[in-house]
Amino acid sequence: MVQADLIQKVNADVKEIFPIVRVYAANIPTYPSGLWTFTMGSKKYDPLEVDETKIPEMETKYYTPRLHKAAFVLPKFVEDLTK
Questions:
Q1: Which of 2-6, 21-25, 39-43 is predicted with the least confidence, judged by mean pLDDT?
Q2: What percent of the chain has pLDDT over 70?
Q3: Closest residue by Cα to residue 40 from 71, 18, 69, 67
Q4: Which long-range contacts (C-beta less than 8 Å, at least 24 apart) are formed by 43-50?
Q5: How many angstroms separate the first and last alpha carbons of the chain?
Q6: DSSP bridge partners of 24
Q7: What is the pLDDT of residue 41?
Q8: Domain locations in the chain as residue ranges
Q9: How far is 63 from 76, CA to CA, in rounded Å?
Q10: Which of 25, 31, 49, 55 has the fewest CB atoms within 10 Å, measured from its CB?
Q11: Rounded to whole angstroms, how far apart are CA atoms 45 and 43?
Q12: What Cα–Cα distance (Å) separates residue 51 from each residue in 47, 48, 69?
């Protein structure tokens, strides 16, 4: 039950305001479709252009710079909706 029209509308609306727009997806099994998308807009910073050398060393159990970048890899059908 992916709401394709909503994904397209949100993406288009955010692009009208922000020059940098990124979408990421997460599986949330407690919601009906399971797959949710989140749209980020920025006037300056691109979340895909993270300089890994500037990330202070942090000890985490989950987050890594590779995971950060991977979060923005979308399923093909979502990628097609955001073109």
A1: 2-6
A2: 98
A3: 18
A4: 43/18, 43/19, 44/20, 45/20, 46/20, 46/22, 47/22, 47/72, 48/22, 48/72
A5: 20
A6: 38
A7: 97
A8: 4-44+55-78
A9: 24
A10: 49
A11: 6
A12: 10, 9, 11
- DSSP calls for 8-52: HHHHHHHHHH-SEEEEEEEE-TTSSSSEEEEEEEESS--TT---G
Q: What is the pTM of this model?
A: 0.79
**Rounded CA gap, 42 and 15, in Å?**
9
Residue given tokens 């691109």 in the structure block: 46
Buried b (16+ CB within 10 A) or exposed e, 13-28: ebeeeeebbbbbbeee
Q: Kindly state the tokens that stand for 25.
A: 């997806």
Which residue, chain included where needed, has tokens 């920025």?
42
